[in-house]
Amino acid sequence: MNFVADIARPAERRVTRLSDLTDSQQEAIRRIPAEKDAVNVPLAATRPNAIFTGRERFDAEQANIFQKHAVPVALAAVLPEPGSVVAIEAYGKPLLVTRTRADNIKVFINACQHKGAKLVEDCAVHKQGRMVCPYHAWTYGLDGKLIGVARSDMFEGVMKDQRGLKELPSVVWGGVIYAQLNGGPLDVSQLHDQIDADFTALGIHGGYVYGRKTFDLAANWKVVLEPFLEGYHVQRLHAASIGALFVDAPSVSDTFGVNIRQVSGRIGYEPAMLDEDADTNVHKLVTHAYTAFPNVVVVTSQYYTSVMILMPYGVDRTIVHYYMVTPGPATTPKAEEVFERSYDLIIKVFAGEDFRAAQISQEGLNAGVPESTVYCGLEENVIRYYEALETLL
Ligand code: FES
Ligand SMILES: [Fe+2]
């Protein structure tokens, strides 16, 4: 189930039109009411403090979600070319992600089968056909096979074919590489075909990683996730940055198992705008926000898409891998300027505003306040998501 080779890279595409989206995405967009007609319904829902601060809940999530199911480790677009490798740390494990010459994505533990040394120590993408251990120079192919042992005549009985790299079963889903951290058979029961199709239509699969950055946050992964599931904070927390571009409504949400898709009209949205010009950049009119199982966040912007993987490292520690995905590299100085400015802005907004909000919330939660968090009608997706997640615990 590795679809990478089947996806033509949309080199010609610079923006996303309505017709580029899946039927399901188009149908959802057509359900968004005009800004003036949007109705919000109040909601009464709470969650206990312990889901963000308790060891018991953290352990249950680890056992029933992160160690049981395939979980996201990186974007396939990080390795656009066959014959390349990148080291990433995911969920505390040193991993190697390779794209073989045959164009297959593979995930390995980044550890030599001689004495465990890391084969790749930095986090840059390397275009190379093999990996040489820095310690005693054992050499591996990108398919994980041990292909060379220095002074092999000195080993009695070391079988090359028994000391290949430890591979984790993996699959590319909508451009996101999912791996089975426990090394067992791949469990993709929570990955939904609609998400695969939607992400591919958004250009995440086959897109270009313009920038990526890692954030180490002192907050529970769900506290980091919440602002990407609700619009309540947007006009408030982001008042000085992007808040003015958004209104509290209108939006349409759809749930696919433990996956949520929300699409919202931008300020002044009217359904008739969709049909004014078939070539219009649809993300000038609407914004998509996804939470995909269990910890992938996708937010669209006019000229790029943000993808984040929120990896729990502790009850109140989360490492976020942020990727800015564009249809391709900038081909003009003007495009480069737009990408560069966008990257600076989105990092400022996500890191300086959303992640900051998560960290200051966690401080209060760790002090036991509030005893339960409370959610309103503009945050219904948080509750929808928690309800879906809780069925797995
Ligand atoms: S630890 Fe890798 S060759 Fe010795
Ligand atoms: Fe936000």
Number of strands: 20
Q: What radius of gyration results from the CA coordinates? A: 22 Å
Structure class:
alpha+beta
Overall structural domain count = 2
Strand order of the largest sheet: 13-19-18-17-16-15-14
GO molecular function: 2 iron, 2 sulfur cluster binding; iron ion binding; oxidoreductase activity
Protein name: (2Fe-2S)-binding protein
Cofactor: Fe cation
Keywords: 2Fe-2S, Iron, Iron-sulfur, Metal-binding, Oxidoreductase
Detailed description of the structure:
The protein has 393 residues and is an alpha+beta fold. The protein folds into two domains: 2-69 and 206-390, Naphthalene 1,2-dioxygenase Alpha Subunit, Chain A, domain 1 (Alpha-Beta Complex); 73-179, 3-layer Sandwich (Rieske Iron-sulfur Protein), CATH 2.102.10. Helix content is 22%, strand content 27%. It is built from eight helices and 20 strands. The protein has helices at 23-30, 50-53, 55-66, 193-201, 221-225, 234-237, 333-366, 380-390; strands at residues 45-48, 71-75, 84-90, 93-99, 105-109, 125-127, 130-132, 139-141, 146-148, 167-168, 170-173, 176-179, 208-217, 251-255, 260-265, 286-292, 296-300, 305-314, 317-326, 372-375. It has a seven-stranded antiparallel beta sheet with strand order 13-19-18-17-16-15-14. It is globular, with a radius of gyration of 22 Å. The two termini are 27 Å apart. The structure holds FE2/S2 (inorganic) cluster (FES) and fe (ii) ion (FE2). Residues 72-179 form the Rieske domain. Pfam families: Rieske, Ring_hydroxyl_A. Its cofactor is Fe cation. InterPro entries: Rieske_2Fe-2S, Rieske_2Fe-2S_sf, Ring_hydroxy_dOase_asu_C_dom, Rng_hydr_dOase-A. This is (2Fe-2S)-binding protein.
